[in-house]
Design a protein that fits this description.
By secondary structure, this protein is mostly helical. The chain has 8 helices and 4 strands, in the order H-E-E-E-E-H-H-H-H-H-H-H. It is globular.
């Protein structure tokens, strides 16, 4: 009764369970053959293990997110008066400085919102990305100064980084920023006009800046997370997102080394979504952006 033909479900070479006592005085027949089908029939919970694991991970992530937001809210409510007072003092003391700098920027662009929105944003993006990223890349290319290498997250990364790979990153990043980034900025400008967004000569109040920062960060992080997760879908990953993961030990300027579709979808659009949702949500109820 323990032959291979007895079950009729032999899908692969059988596994053998050695002689052992299951209950006092009761032995398993020697070398009983267990087929794959029998193993599945006796362990039905194995089939649903992966979906349950994903569900548990999702529930855990939601709980962690709620805990962090709840803790931040409690801390803010408990210390809002003191914190707000100190920050208002700082904003008030330095408010003239920031307002005067903003007026200089406004004058530099001759009060032209089109140039300020598109080229002003583009210059800031280029300056910060290549200025800061370039300094870190010099360290990656030369391995100097040596004391900075101890702060490298992946301290086993080879030094210096291959020049050919760095040049490849620079080319792709510039293509993304110039060929695809500028048209998206132009489209975003006209979208701002449709939803009623405008840049005024006067900076907003401290409370409004704080509120905008909180909302913008939350919206951007959520949009980036789900767009990034979407790009990891098995049917999409190898065509688009795989390029970004060519760098297993990334460098600073490889942040936007990616397919143009990913650059627009996951890097640019989440930022545009911030003010779009903000304006669309507040304007119908009588609030302007500033």
């Amino acid at each position: 009764m323990y032959s291979k033909a007895a079950s009729g479900y032999l899908l692969s070479p059988p596994k053998v369970i050695e002689d052992k006592v299951l209950y006092p005085g009761v032995l398993l027949p020697p070398k009983k053959e267990i087929t794959v089908m029998e193993a599945i029939c006796h362990s039905p919970h194995k089939v649903d293990e992966e979906p349950q694991s994903r569900k548990a991970q999702l529930v855990s992530s939601v709980k962690s997110g709620l805990f962090i937001l709840g803790t931040a809210l409690v801390v803010f409510v408990a210390f809002r008066n003191t914190l707000t007072w100190y920050l208002q003092c700082f904003w008030g003391a330095s408010g003239y400085f920031w307002q005067s700098q903003w007026e200089k920027i406004d004058q530099y662009f001759d009060n032209d919102e089109y140039n300020m929105n598109i080229w002003g944003t583009f210059y800031v993006n280029i300056g910060i990305y290549w200025g800061i990223g370039g300094l870190y890349t010099l360290v990656d290319l030369t391995g100097k100064p040596a004391f900075l290498l101890r702060y490298k997250i992946q301290d086993n990364a080879p030094y210096p980084v291959e020049h050919v790979k760095v040049i490849q990153v620079i080319k792709q990043a510039l293509v993304n920023q110039f060929i695809f980034g500028i048209p998206v900025l132009i489209c975003a400008y006209y979208l701002r006009n449709v939803i009623g967004y405008s840049i005024g000569p006067e900076l907003p109040t401290f409370q409004w800046v704080l509120l905008e920062l909180i909302v913008f960060v939350l919206v951007e992080e959520i949009a980036f997370y789900y767009s990034h997760r979407f790009l990891h879908h098995p049917h999409i990953y190898k065509y688009i997102h795989k390029q970004h993961h060519e760098w297993t030990a990334p460098i600073a300027i490889s942040a936007i080394y990616c397919h143009p579709v990913e650059y627009v979808l996951s890097s640019v659009l989440p930022t545009i979504l911030e003010f779009s949702l903000w304006a669309v949500t507040l304007q119908p109820v009588g609030y302007g952006l500033y």
